[in-house]
Design goal:
There is one protein chain. A hairpin with a 7-residue loop joins strand 3 and strand 4. Helices cover 60% and strands 13% of the residues. It contains 16 helices and ten strands. The protein starts with 5 loop residues before the first helix and ends in an 8-residue tail after the last helix. Helix 1 packs across helix 2, helix 5 runs antiparallel to helix 6 and helix 5 runs parallel beside helix 7. The protein is of the alpha+beta class. The protein folds into three domains: 187 residues, no CATH class; 140 residues, no CATH class; 149 residues, Rossmann fold (3-Layer(aba) Sandwich), CATH 3.40.50. It has a five-stranded mixed β-sheet.
């Protein structure tokens, strides 16, 4: 077809414009030749368009793309438009050429056949087999024969082949056929929506269905229905009703008129929906209550766990602080007692006074000196507690009986014994310008081998020219008269 001489087409169009004869009345281009050109080129062009459309439909089936469907339909449309353009204004050629007349007859027959098959595919109910198709073929052939159409073997064979191709397409290309049908239905709905006014949907409530609402539209006027419906399982009533008859704008389903049976069914469905909704609300409320209780329990557990975590952290912090304090105290003890500064088996003497005056301080020094001299004369090593023991209050604690301090710092294992003396002095004038002083002492003795300690209270009175002499004499008397207190050292 594509290699056809251009002159043939130019002559053909000249013929279609009426230029069949020259000025002398002779044909410059025979109508018969024009008919042959039309038939030859139309046949090949139509076959080219037909197979191109089939290719587009196959590609649409493979890629599931509406683009190829649209392209295939467009090419078929161009083919039919081409046929129409060639046929328009060619009455003279057609009337003078039986061949061209028969060609347009079988083209018309082809169009009717496609229309019949399309109606069968899109409108007849599912489940019908091949017998209705054969019946349609038979009726069409007989009807067209009665109208004068002559069927040759070529024409009948062509129609059967075309029918087989269409039937095979519905089996082999189901998605393409379904897409074409869906597209046609969509176009039909869009046309109806453009041409017809938007339908009003009936608010199907119990009050409307029972006629108890003052604003409810009438369902019937003079016994004739005013609403047309279709079933809809998504609605509580089970129906959707509109003020227009015909197909539904959304589903293309034909609406049926409202009836008392539909109203009763809708009322029953609405009541059941109310019951279901009430049960659902009760269930939702119960579920919410249970969820709230679960959430509260979870929140309480979370809060309890968080509080426990906080308590554990605080307890660990307190324990850490306690250990740090104990370590600081221990370090302070070790530093205050200076254990490493003592020799093994030393007798450690400590003396202190609750009174803060010169005489009391003198008495404390003399207690240490007299006791130290006596113990050294017995062959013992003597030392004294370091100043920090007094400053940090450890001396007073040991005097009160907390002797475990010496165990804690390890001094008890190193010393032979410890003598702690608390001194109190009291002086008054005496006869012949002499001073009389009383010395009271609390003596706590700790031996290395003893499990505990002993506390003794003794006092003596000394006389001297001065208060210091009187105190010194009283301390000597304490040591001399109560020497048995130190026998265990």
């Amino acid at each position: 077809m594509l290699n056809a001489p251009l002159e043939d087409w130019l002559k053909l169009f000249d013929a279609l414009k009426g230029k069949f004869k020259d000025a002398d009345g002779k044909y410059i281009y025979e109508p018969k030749d024009s008919a042959l050109i039309i038939k030859s080129h139309l046949r090949y062009f139509s076959l080219y368009c037909f197979f191109t459309s089939i290719t587009c439909f196959i590609l649409s089936e493979i890629f599931n793309s509406s683009f190829f469907n649209s392209l295939g339909v467009l090419i078929l449309g161009l083919a039919f438009i081409w046929i129409s353009i060639l046929a328009y204004g060619a009455k003279e050629i057609i009337s003078k050429s039986n061949l061209l007349l028969n060609t347009f007859r079988w083209v018309g027959f082809f169009l009717l056949l496609v229309l019949g098959v399309a109606v069968f595919m899109w409108r007849l109910p599912a489940g019908l087999d091949a017998w209705p198709i054969l019946l349609i073929y038979f009726v069409l052939i007989v009807g067209l024969g009665a109208l004068g159409v002559r069927f040759t073997k070529e024409v009948i064979g062509t129609q059967l082949v075309i029918g087989a191709v269409i039937a095979g397409a519905t089996l082999l290309l189901p998605k393409t056929v379904a897409s074409i049908g869906t597209t046609g239905a969509s176009v039909d709905r869009q046309i109806r929506q453009l041409l017809l006014p938007e339908p009003v949907e009936l608010d199907m409530t119990l009050a409307v269905m029972r006629g108890n609402s003052a604003d409810a539209p009438p369902l019937f006027i003079d016994g004739d229905p005013e609403w047309w419906c279709r079933t809809d399982d998504e609605r509580d009533s089970g129906y959707r009703c509109f003020d227009q008859s015909g197909p539904d704008r959304t589903t293309s389903e034909i609406l049926f008129p409202i009836t008392p049976t539909v109203i009763e069914d809708a009322i029953r469905n609405l009541k059941e929906a109310q019951i279901r909704r009430k049960k659902l609300e009760e269930k939702q409320a119960e579920d919410q209550r249970i969820q709230a209780e679960k959430k509260a329990a979870i929140d309480a557990n979370i809060a309890r766990d968080k509080q426990k975590e906080i308590d554990d952290i605080l307890r660990l912090d307190r324990e850490k602080i306690r250990k740090e304090n104990e370590k600081r105290q221990y370090d302070s003890l070790v530093y205050s007692f200076a254990v490493n500064s003592y020799s093994q088996d030393d007798v450690i003497i400590g003396a202190n006074s609750e009174e803060n005056n010169n005489l009391s301080r003198y008495a404390v020094d003399q207690i240490y000196n007299i006791l130290s001299k006596r113990l050294k004369n017995s062959g013992l090593n003597v030392d004294k507690f370091r100043p920090d023991v007094y400053h940090q209050g450890y001396f007073d604690q040991i005097m009160e009986g907390r002797t475990n301090i010496l165990d804690k710092v390890g001094l008890k294992r190193k010393m032979r014994a410890a003598i702690l003396v608390n001194v109190r002095t009291s002086c008054r004038p005496s006869i012949q310008d002499l001073k009389s002083c009383s010395v009271s002492v609390d003596i706590r003795l700790l031996a290395k081998t003893a499990a505990g300690s002993s506390l003794n209270h003794v006092s003596e009175v000394g006389v001297g020219v001065t208060s210091e002499q009187a105190v010194f004499r009283a301390i000597e008397l304490v040591v001399e008269r109560h020497a048995h207190l130190f026998d265990g050292i």
